[in-house]
Amino acid sequence: MSGATTLxxxxxxxxxxxxxxxxxxxxxEVEDNAQPPGEDRRGATRQARTGAAIFRIVxxxxxxxxxxxxxxxxxxxxxxxxxxxxxxxxxxxRGLPPDQRGRQEDQRIYSGHGLRGxxxxxxxxxxxxxxxxxxxxxxxxxxxxxx
Length: 147
Fold this sequence. Notes:
- The chain is of the alpha+beta class.
- The protein has one domain: Heat Shock Protein 90 (2-Layer Sandwich), CATH 3.30.565.10.
- The chain has helices at 7-22, 41-68, 113-124; strands at 26-31, 74-81, 84-91, 128-133, 139-146.
- The chain has a five-stranded mixed β-sheet with strand order 1-2-3-5-4.
- The protein is globular, with a radius of gyration of 15 Å.
- 30% of the residues are buried.
């Protein structure tokens, strides 16, 4: 996440590479535009770290959808908001087991530590992490990170 590479470009490349390796279609939607970091070096560094954290969270979510969800499609929705970035990753797979729905603490479904790692990565950056059922079935992960 440096130079001229944007978060959208990184996620688009990640989605294409994931599709090529897994055969699982990924649709990326971007809403609004990123705010340029400006001249502030700290702001640029913070934006790069936030983008890298989002990239890794999306990477883990894609891996989980492929390995565990029996999904046939994954959607990534990236939304720039005043003061933050929201990303939602949704698959159309089998969803959460009934005993895991609505639970946030110590989720041990999917890859075990992957969900915990995503939650910790978001918290490290002052963000939030939500895991739940997607509206039409499957799993939905929503992450918000301040910029």
